[in-house]
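Kindly inspect this today.
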Amino acid sequence: MDRFDPLRRRTIALVGLMGVGKSSVGRRLASALDLPFRDADHEVEAAAGRSISDIFTDLGEAAFREGERRVIARLLDQPPHVLATGGGAFMNPETRALIKSKAVSVWLKADLELLARRIARKDTRPLVAGKNPLTVLKDLAETRYPVYAEADIAVETGDAAHHVTVEQVIRALSEHLETRAQ
């Protein structure tokens, strides 16, 4: 048994605002733990046969959130993996309850100005389209942070290299599991 075996027993669900690194950190975390990686946004796009931007434009946010909820429920029924959730997924009470019962949730948190710089580089985020990224993030943080705080673990990522964040997450997961075992 290696030191990561206890970390492989449940799905690890990454939650947090857009741009915090759920997908990029999640891929590296999955690799470090030798687990499969799933990105809920990509899975939603595959299930819908269209991009998230198109889903928002054609069907609206409510339809996207419902599809996201169904996809995450399906993913949580699969063997343990690292799951990058969409920024709003944890806001859905049903999804949050499923994550709490079937996974260990990790809130990745970073400075809002850093996140604004990151997301300004991409034009694929429907919640930010045509708006000031920092203003959007401040509004989202006000609404979402109290809910993200329900995650099992919070990791402040800062602007560290991804491998440093992965090490922080692994350390936090190990400490969380040790505490739960006592």
